[in-house]
Amino acid sequence: MDLLRDNIGAAAAYSGVGVLLLVVGFLALDLVTPGRLRNLIWLDHNRNAVMLATAQVIGLSIVLVAGIRDSLTLELWRGIVYTIAYVVLAIAVMMWSFVLIDWLTPGKLGTLLLDDDEHPAGWICGAVFIGVGAVIGAALGL
Q1: Cβ proximity of 30 and 104 under 8 Å
Q2: Distance CA 62, CA 137 (A)
Q3: Residues ≥6 apart with Cβ < 8 Å to 67
Q4: Of 40, 47, 99, 142, which residue has the fewest beta carbons closer than 10 angstroms?
């Protein structure tokens, strides 16, 4: 019974931290994109914004899972702190990659993503976000 209680407690703690980190990631993405991201998604049904936010959730979830698996042998509080550090790193790299892609490509990336015509730039950024999550997640498995 103690194991069940401890596992439920750990699952609840990691779940709560995970949801908060996904919200932090969304807020960071909102900072680098023009307009209100939540309005673009929920009110305007902008496919580029939906795809980009979805890719970010996938990438960050990869890092969350890898961070949790990497910290299973640690005390719960230490595992949570390490997982937070890994996900914050992933958010920072994702936002840096967005700015870098914007700088390296023609046009204004944020403006292109405001269009609701499924611009290829949104797919590239989304793939990069998932790639960042995969790379950081893989690095934790070393």
Answers
A1: no
A2: 6
A3: 79, 82, 83, 86, 87, 140
A4: 142
Decide: 113 and 48 in contact? Cβ < 8 Å: yes
Here the tokens at position 32 are 């680098």
With 0-12 / 13-18 / 19 or more C-beta atoms within 10 angstroms meaning exposed / middle / buried, residue 97 is middle
Complete DSSP assignment for 22-71: HHHHHHHHHHHSSS-HHIIIIIT--HHHHHHHHHHHHHHHHHHHHHHHHT
Q: Please tell me the distance from the alpha carbon of residue 22 to that of residue 48, in angstroms, as a whole number.
A: 19
The pLDDT score that the predictor gives to residue 117 is: 73
Length of the chain: 142
The per-residue pLDDT for range 8-67, each reduced to its tens digit, is 988 899 999 999 999 999 999 999 888 898 999 999 888 889 999 999 999 999 999 999
